[in-house]
Amino acid sequence: MLEHERALRDEAARKNDLITYLAHDLKTPLTSVIGYLSLLDEIPEMPLEQRARYVGITLDKARRLERLINEFFDITRYNLTHIELEVEPVDLSFLLVQMTDEFYPLLGAHGNSIRLEVSGHLATTDDPGEPLMVMGDAARLARVFNNVLKNAIAYSHEGTQIVVTANLAACEEAADGAGLAARGAGVQGSGSAGDAGAGDLVRVTVTDEGVTIPPHKLEAIFDKFFRLDEARASSTGGAGLGLAIAREIVELHGGRIFAESASGRTTFTVELPVG
Fold first, then answer.
1. Among candidate residues 64, 118, 57, the one with its CA nearest the CA of residue 93
2. Structure pTM?
3. Using an 8 Å Cβ cutoff, are 139 and 92 in contact?
């Protein structure tokens, strides 16, 4: 009980520190937006090239301001109340193709690319491959992979490739009360979801190339309000909620999510039961 109370106090302290930090950090882009808009308003005859540059800077600062405000919303609305899932058949192959395609602008800005392989097949918008079905909440699962992909882009080296794989795998251990208790690497399957047995699962991995995450941080990476690098700007590091939210959603689906990091490669793995 004492440990639980201490954990709650630490969590509240981290949350308050983040809110204070974000409140302070809001001033910088807002000041820039007002400053450049004032210049554009005061000098209507400004050369087109200079005007275009100022507009570009203003838009960049406004987008940063939007990200900070979104983090405020995430912090204030996040809690551990039960999430009601709207369960239906979900084609993870199609969902992942959509997700990776939507990340094209962010990938381009960071010089990254994504390679998506589903059951050993290179999946694209033109050729998503065979369906890979699970029972789940499509909107919530999209949020899981959105958060994991954003994290991979934010912490990968510029110009590197992010590799996403999705496969049918055999569940090696029975599920426990807290969720799927699959452990270890598993046996990769190449069959379609239609051949899945009751003990099968779908395993999705997201691998990026960046700085190796030390073991003590790897253990805490899914904790609420944990930021991998406190020195990073909010636009990169975020509020530390994305992976915590992803874990909660995955566990509600009876699955699990974990991370491994070595030799500059970090892999996030999501395992979901087929049915």
1. 118
2. 0.65
3. no
